[in-house]
Protein backbone atom coordinates (compact mmCIF):
# COMPACT_ATOMS: atom_id res chain seq x y z
CA UNK A 1 0.00 0.00 0.00
CA UNK A 2 2.99 2.34 0.31
CA UNK A 3 3.12 2.55 -3.49
CA UNK A 4 -0.37 4.03 -3.52
CA UNK A 5 0.68 7.11 -1.49
CA UNK A 6 2.34 8.80 -4.51
CA UNK A 7 -0.77 8.01 -6.53
CA UNK A 8 -2.96 9.65 -3.88
CA UNK A 9 -0.72 12.70 -3.80
CA UNK A 10 -0.87 12.94 -7.60
CA UNK A 11 -4.68 12.71 -7.51
CA UNK A 12 -4.90 15.47 -4.89
CA UNK A 13 -2.50 17.70 -6.86
CA UNK A 14 -4.45 17.08 -10.08
CA UNK A 15 -7.75 17.86 -8.33
CA UNK A 16 -6.33 21.11 -6.90
CA UNK A 17 -4.98 22.10 -10.31
CA UNK A 18 -8.41 21.38 -11.82
CA UNK A 19 -10.06 23.56 -9.19
CA UNK A 20 -7.70 26.44 -9.88
CA UNK A 21 -8.23 26.19 -13.65
CA UNK A 22 -12.01 25.95 -13.15
CA UNK A 23 -12.03 28.96 -10.83
CA UNK A 24 -10.00 31.04 -13.26
CA UNK A 25 -12.28 30.08 -16.16
CA UNK A 26 -15.43 30.80 -14.11
CA UNK A 27 -14.18 34.28 -13.16
CA UNK A 28 -12.59 35.17 -16.50
CA UNK A 29 -13.71 38.47 -18.05
CA UNK A 30 -14.09 36.75 -21.41
CA UNK A 31 -16.66 34.30 -20.01
CA UNK A 32 -18.61 37.15 -18.40
CA UNK A 33 -18.57 39.19 -21.62
CA UNK A 34 -19.70 36.20 -23.68
CA UNK A 35 -22.53 35.65 -21.17
CA UNK A 36 -23.51 39.33 -21.47
CA UNK A 37 -23.70 38.99 -25.27
CA UNK A 38 -25.83 35.87 -24.89
CA UNK A 39 -28.20 37.66 -22.50
CA UNK A 40 -28.53 40.62 -24.87
CA UNK A 41 -29.30 38.29 -27.79
CA UNK A 42 -31.95 36.51 -25.71
CA UNK A 43 -33.59 39.79 -24.69
CA UNK A 44 -33.80 40.96 -28.30
CA UNK A 45 -34.96 37.67 -29.84
CA UNK A 46 -38.52 36.33 -30.02
CA UNK A 47 -40.53 33.93 -32.17
CA UNK A 48 -43.99 35.47 -32.24
CA UNK A 49 -45.93 38.70 -32.06
CA UNK A 50 -46.03 40.24 -28.59
CA UNK A 51 -47.88 43.02 -26.86
CA UNK A 52 -45.92 46.18 -26.14
CA UNK A 53 -46.13 45.47 -22.42
CA UNK A 54 -44.66 41.96 -22.80
CA UNK A 55 -41.94 43.29 -25.13
CA UNK A 56 -41.04 46.02 -22.65
CA UNK A 57 -40.94 43.55 -19.76
CA UNK A 58 -38.63 41.25 -21.70
CA UNK A 59 -36.18 43.92 -22.83
CA UNK A 60 -36.12 45.44 -19.33
CA UNK A 61 -33.49 42.81 -18.53
CA UNK A 62 -31.15 44.84 -20.76
CA UNK A 63 -31.02 47.48 -18.04
CA UNK A 64 -28.38 45.50 -16.13
CA UNK A 65 -26.24 45.15 -19.25
CA UNK A 66 -26.23 48.79 -20.41
CA UNK A 67 -24.51 51.83 -18.94
CA UNK A 68 -26.91 54.70 -18.19
CA UNK A 69 -25.15 56.81 -20.84
CA UNK A 70 -24.87 54.02 -23.45
CA UNK A 71 -24.61 54.98 -27.12
CA UNK A 72 -25.74 52.67 -29.92
CA UNK A 73 -24.91 53.58 -33.53
CA UNK A 74 -26.64 51.32 -36.05
CA UNK A 75 -24.88 53.03 -38.96
CA UNK A 76 -27.96 54.83 -40.20
CA UNK A 77 -29.81 57.71 -38.65
CA UNK A 78 -28.88 59.25 -35.33
CA UNK A 79 -27.29 57.07 -32.67
CA UNK A 80 -29.44 56.04 -29.74
CA UNK A 81 -28.22 57.68 -26.56
CA UNK A 82 -29.11 56.61 -23.07
CA UNK A 83 -30.31 53.36 -21.56
CA UNK A 84 -33.98 54.39 -21.61
CA UNK A 85 -33.97 55.17 -25.35
CA UNK A 86 -32.19 51.92 -26.20
CA UNK A 87 -34.65 49.84 -24.17
CA UNK A 88 -37.63 51.70 -25.66
CA UNK A 89 -36.35 51.06 -29.20
CA UNK A 90 -35.74 47.39 -28.45
CA UNK A 91 -39.28 47.07 -27.06
CA UNK A 92 -40.74 48.73 -30.19
CA UNK A 93 -38.80 46.38 -32.46
CA UNK A 94 -39.97 43.33 -30.49
CA UNK A 95 -43.60 44.52 -30.49
CA UNK A 96 -43.71 45.33 -34.21
CA UNK A 97 -41.71 42.42 -35.62
CA UNK A 98 -43.36 39.02 -36.05
CA UNK A 99 -40.06 37.27 -35.38
CA UNK A 100 -36.49 38.37 -34.76
CA UNK A 101 -33.48 36.31 -33.81
CA UNK A 102 -30.21 37.97 -32.80
CA UNK A 103 -27.00 35.96 -32.58
CA UNK A 104 -23.41 36.99 -31.86
CA UNK A 105 -20.60 35.04 -33.51
CA UNK A 106 -16.84 34.93 -33.02
CA UNK A 107 -16.34 37.75 -30.51
CA UNK A 108 -12.76 39.04 -30.45
CA UNK A 109 -12.40 40.36 -26.92
CA UNK A 110 -9.55 42.72 -26.07
CA UNK A 111 -9.16 43.63 -22.41
CA UNK A 112 -7.75 47.01 -21.39
CA UNK A 113 -6.88 46.54 -17.77
CA UNK A 114 -9.39 45.17 -15.29
CA UNK A 115 -12.28 47.49 -16.04
CA UNK A 116 -12.59 48.02 -19.79
CA UNK A 117 -12.74 45.89 -22.90
CA UNK A 118 -13.55 46.07 -26.58
CA UNK A 119 -15.09 43.30 -28.61
CA UNK A 120 -15.48 43.04 -32.32
CA UNK A 121 -18.26 40.61 -33.12
CA UNK A 122 -20.39 39.45 -36.02
CA UNK A 123 -24.08 40.08 -35.34
CA UNK A 124 -26.61 38.08 -37.30
CA UNK A 125 -30.18 39.36 -37.29
CA UNK A 126 -32.82 37.05 -38.71
CA UNK A 127 -36.36 38.32 -39.29
CA UNK A 128 -39.48 36.80 -40.79
CA UNK A 129 -41.26 38.65 -43.53
CA UNK A 130 -45.05 38.65 -44.02
CA UNK A 131 -44.75 35.74 -46.48
CA UNK A 132 -43.15 33.60 -43.75
CA UNK A 133 -39.72 33.74 -45.40
CA UNK A 134 -36.82 34.31 -43.06
CA UNK A 135 -34.26 36.93 -44.00
CA UNK A 136 -30.85 37.03 -42.33
CA UNK A 137 -28.41 39.92 -42.33
CA UNK A 138 -24.94 39.88 -40.81
CA UNK A 139 -23.05 42.93 -39.61
CA UNK A 140 -19.75 43.46 -37.85
CA UNK A 141 -20.03 45.53 -34.69
CA UNK A 142 -17.58 47.05 -32.27
CA UNK A 143 -18.69 47.09 -28.64
CA UNK A 144 -17.01 49.00 -25.82
CA UNK A 145 -17.54 47.51 -22.36
CA UNK A 146 -16.76 48.72 -18.86
CA UNK A 147 -16.75 46.87 -15.60
CA UNK A 148 -18.71 48.68 -12.91
CA UNK A 149 -19.40 47.33 -9.45
CA UNK A 150 -18.16 43.90 -10.46
CA UNK A 151 -20.23 43.44 -13.63
CA UNK A 152 -19.60 44.16 -17.29
CA UNK A 153 -21.84 46.64 -19.09
CA UNK A 154 -22.03 47.94 -22.65
CA UNK A 155 -20.84 51.56 -22.84
CA UNK A 156 -21.20 51.90 -26.61
CA UNK A 157 -21.78 49.82 -29.70
CA UNK A 158 -21.59 50.65 -33.37
CA UNK A 159 -22.13 48.76 -36.56
CA UNK A 160 -18.99 48.99 -38.67
CA UNK A 161 -19.18 49.93 -42.34
CA UNK A 162 -19.44 46.94 -44.68
CA UNK A 163 -16.02 47.62 -46.23
CA UNK A 164 -14.26 47.31 -42.86
CA UNK A 165 -11.71 44.48 -43.07
CA UNK A 166 -12.26 41.54 -40.76
Written overview of the protein:
This protein is an alpha+beta fold. The protein has a single domain, classed as Nuclear Transport Factor 2, Chain: A, CATH 3.10.450. About 35% of the residues lie in helices and about 35% in strands. It has four helices and six strands. The chain has a six-stranded mixed sheet with strand order 2-1-6-5-4-3, covered by helices on one side. A hairpin with a 6-residue loop joins strand 1 and strand 2. Helix 3 crosses helix 4. The protein is elongated, with a radius of gyration of 21 Å. The relative contact order is 0.16.
What is the radius of gyration computed over CA atoms, rounded to a whole number of angstroms? Answer: 21 Å
Shape: elongated
The helix/strand order is HHHEEHEEEE
Number of domains: 1
Number of helices: 4
**Proportion of beta-strand residues:** 35-45%
CATH topology (level 3) name: Nuclear Transport Factor 2, Chain: A
| Low-confidence residue ranges | none
Which range best describes the helical content: under 10%, 10-25%, 25-40%, 40-55%, 55-70% or over 70%? 25-40%
Q: Average the pLDDT over all residues and give the rounded result.
A: 84
- Placed side by side, the strands forming the largest sheet appear as 2-1-6-5-4-3
CATH architecture type: Roll
DSSP strand count: 6
What profile does the largest beta sheet have? Answer: 6 strands, mixed
What is the CATH C level class, in words?
Alpha Beta
Amino acid sequence: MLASTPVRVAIVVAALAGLVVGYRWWNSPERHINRLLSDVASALSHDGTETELRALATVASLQNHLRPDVSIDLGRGSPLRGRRDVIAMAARVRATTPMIRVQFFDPEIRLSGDSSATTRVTVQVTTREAGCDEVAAAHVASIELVRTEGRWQIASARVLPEDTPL
